[in-house]
Amino acid sequence: MTPAPHPQNASPAGETVVVGLSGGVDSAVAALRLLEQGYDVHGLFMKNWEEDDDADYCAAAADLADARAVAEHLGIRLHTANFAAEYWDRVFTHFLAEYRAGRTPNPDVLCNREIKFQAFLDHALWLGADRIATGHYARLALDEDGARLHLCADPDKDQTYFLYLLNQEQLRHSRFPLADLTKAEVRRIARHAGLANAAKKDSTGICFIGERRFRDFLARYLPPTPGPIETPEGRVLGEHRGVAYYTIGQRQGLGIGGLADGDEAPWFVARKEPVRNALIVVQGGEHPLLMSHEVEGTQLHWIAGHPPGPLPYPCRARLRHRQALQDCQLLSYDGSTCRVAFEHPQRAVTPGQSIVLYRDDECLGGAVIAQAA
């Protein structure tokens, strides 16, 4: 691809912005808003997964067609880039290694750091852009202390949980044009602007892999390894397909009923033991083995580049996307690990997922959950 030249006539904002156009309504409205603000806007469609032979999941072509329609409607140039190799090397190999180890990773978090805000950023700068923009629901503040990431206006759509691994360089080059909008307002703007994807359904699949049966997809790379489903006391209740296919707190798909001499309360996954290849289950969604007061994290990252303050540090946290912020205290940290105590017990804390820390509405950073107690 030949790099795009810098615009001959500078825009009122004096900057060229490349928007990651996915084909969805969020990125389309992000591009529209930047145009209205006077930026010189380009779009870039990222292909980050090589499609397989299953036509049901070959959504990339349709998404590209939608992105092209948006770019044509807005009158902006659309670039394309294939980051499939980067995604495989930087995200997917880690994803598989975590599942093999019995943990449940969050590929969207790593994808944002390595692909959407690194490979994409590098490519956009090569094209001649000053910065990039996406349709993420988050708010960015820039001041003399650097870049700060804050909650957006729509609590149901806030995506700061997925952005906590971004660093100062990535954030300084980024824009989030949807920060002050709700999803309903985004769709209303899209309809008013005549965008054909105004009513397009939101994607809910794994980052760049799509909306497919996850267990079937994972089985292509991690073959089934059957083992026992046990109670904490060691009573065998059935057989699982492989601990990689289950997550803490899972209820569906266990294939076991009530005990003959017990009640009919539903069973939940409480623990995975990959060394023994055993799945430990308990009855009742509030069973003590499902509840935790403390979390230990690893791969600790601070957005500001340094810890927030002296210990113990009162803050709030999320253990999963869309969870209400939970009161907690940061008890300890070093260069890569931390320990957090919650005011109220947390259910189904899952190793491999992330604990993301907040001060008021500012996202401070976070860590990968190593274990809970």
From TrEMBL:
Keyword ATP-binding: yes
Main location, first listed in the record: cytoplasm
GO biological process per UniProt: methylation; tRNA wobble position uridine thiolation
Active site, per annotation: C111, C207
One Pfam family in the UniProt entry: tRNA_Me_trans
Localization in the cell: Cytoplasm
Protein's UniProt keywords contain tRNA-binding: yes
Binding site for ATP: G20, L21, S22, G23, G24, V25, D26, S27, M46, G135
Residues with site note (Interaction with tRNA): H136, Q353
GO molecular function (one): methyltransferase activity
Listed NCBIfam families: PRK00143.1, trmU
Sequence similarity: Belongs to the MnmA/TRMU family.
Name of the protein described by the UniProt record: tRNA-specific 2-thiouridylase MnmA
Organism: Thioflavicoccus mobilis 8321
